[in-house]
Each structure stands twice: as C-alpha cells, then as structure tokens.
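Journal club side-thread
Mid-discussion, someone asked how the predicted structure for our own chain would compare to the paper's figures. Pasting it here so we can look after the session.
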Amino acid sequence: MMSKVTVDQFAKLMVDDKVGKILNATQEKDGLTPKEISKATKIANNKLYYTLNKMVEADLLMIVRQKKVKNLTENYYSSSHLSQQGQSNSFKEDNVINFSDDWIREHGEQTLQLVMLQHHELIEALKNQLKKESDDSIAMSSHSEIDLSAEGEKKLISDLFEVLGHAEENDPNPDAKEKRRVRVQLEKW
C-alpha cells in the first residue's frame, strides 16, 4: 500500500460510513462498476464518485480494469488487494505477517494506515456482531497491561508468534468441513 494521502487524510476517510460500505462491496478481484457499487451499498451514484476517487488516491481501492462503453471509459474498482491474501507475502512467515522495526521506520505512514484499516475492519466486525443475536463469537478485542523485562517482552512476542504460526497445524479438528477465517492482530506499545 503506497498511499498518496497523509495519515490524517486517511483517518478522515476511515471514519466515513460510505468507505466501509464500499470496502465491503468491492472485495472481489474482478471489481465492480460505480453503478454496481451504488446498488450493493445503497449509496446514490452522485454521492459515490468523490468517495471512489479519494479511496483510489488513498490506495483503498484499485481500478482493476476498464471497459469502453460508447465514448466513455467505465472503471471497475476492487479492494481485494487489502486482504492478507491479496498482500505481498514478503513479510509472511508461518501464516504471520510481521513487519520489522526497520521496515516500520522506513514506512511509517503506510504502517499507520494499515493499522487504521485493520482497526476499521475490527470495528465493522464488532458492529455486525452486535446486530446479530448469536452466541457464536466472531469478533473480539482483548487488552492487557503487564510488567515485563526487555527479555520477558521479547519472549512474550516470540511465544505469541509461535502460537499464531502453528495454529492451523494445531487445529484440534483439522478435517472439519466448515471452517472460518480467523483474523488476529497483535499490537504492542
């Protein structure tokens, strides 16, 4: 993700309700036209184009193909590149994407934008969960403050990465026909 907008501009986009709806509607790699996005999100066409352009500028959407319709060019928009499957695996090891301290320092704004995007996805999942009256916990958030030495902190992070990296192979029911994608985000500050 190489956004052309500042972190503040990106944050402003992330709190726009239309952005969340558009991100959810455009997850297919083939993309959708503005008319299809309007239908899927129930956002009027005339209120869509400005947001689509801002999202492309912020790399939240990509124009994945264009089609000539008479004398106009119709764009197809996709947000599939934002999913972990759509991202480069250059930082992925044992199913865990881990950005090094050096990479974060060199790509600070990108890192902040990625964290905001992932928080937005968590918030949307929590909101959707609240609408449903289900006992099946899908989204959750857990927070803790503990006092550790520098070595203890490194060991904790290493242990967490180890658990995440081997979660699929340690699944107690690996042959289950019904599986769901579990997204976990670790943050430390």
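Post-session note: Residues 81 and 87 are 6 Å apart (CA to CA).
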